[in-house]
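Hey, I'm writing a tutorial for new members on how sequence and structure tokens pair up, and I'd like a real worked example in the thread rather than a made-up one. If someone can provide the structure for the chain below, I'll link this post from the tutorial.
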Amino acid sequence: MASKQYIWHNGKFRKYEDVKVHVFTQTIQYGTGIFEGIRSYPTADGNVAIFRLNDHVDRFFQSAQIYQFELPFTRKQIHDAIIETVKKNKMTHSYIRPFGFYEHQGISLDLKGKKMSVSITTIPFGSYFIGGEKGITCMVSSWHKINSGTLPPQAKVSGNYIASIMSIAEAKHAGYDESILIDATGHVTEGSGENIFLVKDGELITPSKEYDILVGITRDSAIKLAAKLGLKVVERGIHREELYTADEVFFTGTAAEIVAIVKIDGRVIGSGKQGPITKQISEKFFRLVKGEDEQFKIWLTKVY
């Protein structure tokens, strides 16, 4: 990363390469970090805006609340620091990573009385899936999504993503672009870092939160956009085999945005390319992040 980039770290801007933590920190040892993934986009009027910033900041604090992690900053301080970091780094298309973590060193599992450090990093970011405009291929992983009886899936905590990392490795080894995780009962949950939707007979179907999904912000955006397009949205359990016979399947996520899935476990989905409903939602999504949809401008926070 270029030395001209800065990271906001505990209230101060520091050069990207100067922010270092010790290998023996508690978070590195045990995965006790909370984070968000946020995007900024250039808008049609020549400005830059952050997409659904308030919702991401709220979820960041909800993750801390769930785990009883102590953040030393207020919502407003983190909100404003994210804007200032994007501005200082002169970012347009950026991925923004607020990260709360424990810098103290030691092997103790007891976090009582320990406060988190917070960093905010921005990086230039385009499409997550190279060639994703043609659609991606997936496999259903042999690894299961964590359930709320083990770890809370509604918190974006570093340690929660180990199963995702293992599932991606499995999928890549088998020649696929991405993985899909199911739960212990055989129901579809999500991708390694994305929510999943399928289209069947004109209905848009996505797993409900009872199936241990992370209730994603881009997922919520897609549901609201679909409703404005007059589409029926159903949130329920999805059996694995329903993916194979769907008319369309797509992922949503901050990094992934909206991307069609054209093959799952070697089976071609629908026409084998982005379907009409996925295209409708995708086009509306990209119009709104550019500020071209008056109805959803409330989701954009202007940077400059």
